[in-house]
Amino acid sequence: MLTSLSLTNFKAWQNIDKMRLAPITALFGTNSSGKSSILQFLLMLKQTADSSDRSVVLHLGDDKSPVNLGTIKDVSHAHSEQPEFKIGVEWTTPKSVDLKDPDTQNKSLCKSDKFSFFSRVIANGGGKVNCP
User: Fold this and answer.
1) Domain that holds residue 91
2) Is 114:90 a contact under the CB 8 Å cutoff?
3) CA R_g for the chain
4) Would you say residue 131 has pLDDT above 90?
5) CA distance 75 to 85
6) CATH assignment at residue 62
7) 127 pLDDT higher than 90
8) So what's the pLDDT on residue 88?
9) Alpha-helical regions (H) of the chain
10) pLDDT the model gives residue 125
């Protein structure tokens, strides 16, 4: 289950620092305050993870996707000419996961039920995105 979300420079949000998520999370705010942007971001993460094209850093969508967000400039806060995003998610699993050394499969590298992922994503001049 996702437990927190951090996000910088995505659509209406200049910065979200570890927004806590719970089994039931309600989003409240005035019109155009960014509630839908959070949901669109989560859908974008899902469709990126589901994409068979591993060269795509962020799958912004197409006609067959749950969400089509347009171009990298479209999703950049204030439509920045040089978009840069910071993304962070934390989650828990129902049972501990034992991550094994891929070379030996014997040595346990980590055993936990709590995980996190943080990344900085920048756009190059061609509108493509890279993880530096």
Assistant:
1) 2-130
2) yes
3) 16
4) no
5) 10
6) 3.40.50
7) no
8) 94
9) 35-50, 72-75
10) 58
Residue 130 has a pLDDT of 53
Count CB-CB contacts under 10 A for residue 60. Answer: 19
Residues with Cβ within 8 Å of 122's Cβ and at least 6 positions away in sequence, in order, are 82, 83, 84, 85, 129, 130, 132
Residues 54-100 pLDDT 10s = 888 889 999 999 999 998 889 999 888 778 899 999 999 999 999 89
Q: What does the pLDDT look like over 9-47, one tens digit per residue? A: 999 999 999 999 999 899 999 998 999 999 999 999 999
- Sequence-distant (6+) residues with CB within 8 A of 125 are none
Tokens read off for 30: 């005035």
CB within 8 A of 52, min separation 6: which ones? none
Tally of domains in the chain: 1
Question: Rounded to an integer, what distance in angstroms lies between the CA atom of residue 125 and that of residue 45?
Answer: 23
Contacts of 88 (CB under 8 A, 6+ apart): 4, 5, 6, 7, 18, 116, 117, 118, 119
Report DSSP letters for 101-115, one per residue: PTTTSSSEEEEEEEE
Q: d(Cα 12, Cα 77) in Å, to the nearest integer?
A: 6
